[in-house]
Amino acid sequence: MPADPPKLRWGILGTASISRKSWKAIANSGNGVVVAVGSRDLERAQKFIAECQAEAPFPVAPRAEPDYARVLQADDVDAAYIPLPTALRKEWVLRAAQAGKHVVCEKPCAANLADLVEMVATCRRHRVQFMDGVMFMHSRRLERVRALLDDGQTVGQIRRINTAFNFNSDDAFLAGNIRTSAALEPLGCLGDQGWYCLRFSLWAMNWQLPRQVSGCVLSTFARPGEAPVPTEFSGELLFDGGVSAAFYCSFVTEFEEIAVVSGTRGYLRIRDFVVPFVGNEIAFETGTAGITFQGCEVLSESKTRQWTVPEPSHGQPGSQETNLFRNFAAQVQSGTLNDAWPDYALKTQQVLNACLESARADGSLIALPPA
């Protein structure tokens, strides 16, 4: 039997909280290993490594580097995971590509579409793989959902998509978290949560771009001396064929992560489309409903079906975050590039920035050029 290919060797740039989840996902992937973690604060990198190594150890503990550049210059690093703030991502994605490192970039990938176009073009020019860190795209649940959306019977023709991703933050979050800093995360909740909503709608529509979009900033927060960032945002996408999609994202509304696809024959609802609820199965629902009249009575009746997919919610070899890093490593090991992954990111960024442009123009409809 042929020997397994060498494991993809990862360098992590920064010690953001999401990096801990990604460390464990790489450890569970079976085809990847973290070899270096870079931070502007060496002690922080050392502490991060010690804590992650205690929970999800690699046979050889990764080394700490005192800056990001040294990670990218290392000969034993094949790929870079970049969870740095959005305002810093462009520089380090470009530098990673120029160093010949494959890139998984957290979302939102860039502050604007022009930056992401340059980032993706540089990755392609240097023949390195680019992918954004949308973990739900690698869940086996989406395979089952896709089959039902395409069967022509369960949902029928899609007419409407509704998504929402929110959490209710406190004063400490607003004052101290980077997601409310215009200098670091200028897109606020639109970038942090709206990216997921837009990605789901584009995926459901088989990557068809909307012809027009509108957006509205419902609330903002501003740090002293900084511009305000959206803390509550809603938007509307209008597709050819009469299909529409609405989304809502917020730092000031109780936790919710719901996606609903409504069609001519029924609906499909996912109550945890971004981060699955804890368990060893992940679920969704399909159904129909109707109203009947019986004399003086009006009866609303619903017929629903629960679907489950045997997939751990988190932290295991089969969970969606592990699948992301396993799939990425397998793609790199194949010796070919997956052009679809960067295109998904580009389309998401394009729609996101058009929604923000609309919001800044008092909700005027913004036309998108044909794909």
Query: Which residues form runs of ≥5 with pLDDT under 50?
Result: none
| CATH topology value of the largest domain | Dihydrodipicolinate Reductase, domain 2
CATH class of the largest domain: Alpha Beta
Report the structural category.
Answer: alpha/beta
Shape: globular
**DSSP E strands, number:** 15
Helix and strand run: EHEHEHEHEHEHEHHEEEEEEEHHE
How much of the sequence is in beta strands?
Answer: 25-35%
Strand order of the largest sheet: 14-13-12-11-7-10-9-8-15
Q: What fraction, in percent, of the residue positions are helical? A: 25-40%
**What would you give as the CATH superfamily of the largest domain?**
Dihydrodipicolinate Reductase, domain 2
Compute the separation of the termini in Å.
45 Å
| Tally of domains | 2
Q: Tell me which CATH architecture of the largest domain applies here.
A: 2-Layer Sandwich
User: Main β-sheet, in a few words?
Assistant: 9 strands, mixed
C-alpha-based Rg, rounded? 21 Å
Roughly what is the average pLDDT, rounded to an integer?
Answer: 96
Our count of helices gives: 10
Can you characterise this structure?
This protein is an alpha/beta fold. It folds into two domains: 8-135 and 320-338, NAD(P)-binding Rossmann-like Domain (Rossmann fold, 3-Layer(aba) Sandwich), CATH 3.40.50; 137-311 and 347-367, Dihydrodipicolinate Reductase, domain 2 (2-Layer Sandwich), CATH 3.30.360.10. Helix content is 35%, strand content 29%. It has helices at residues 17-29, 42-55, 68-73, 86-98, 113-125, 140-150, 171-176, 188-204, 320-334, 340-360; strands spanning 8-13, 32-38, 63-65, 79-82, 102-105, 130-132, 158-168, 212-221, 229-238, 244-250, 252-263, 267-270, 282-294, 297-309, 366-367. The strands form two sheets. A nine-stranded mixed β-sheet has the order 14-13-12-11-7-10-9-8-15. Strand 1, helix 1 and strand 2 (32-38) form a beta-alpha-beta unit.
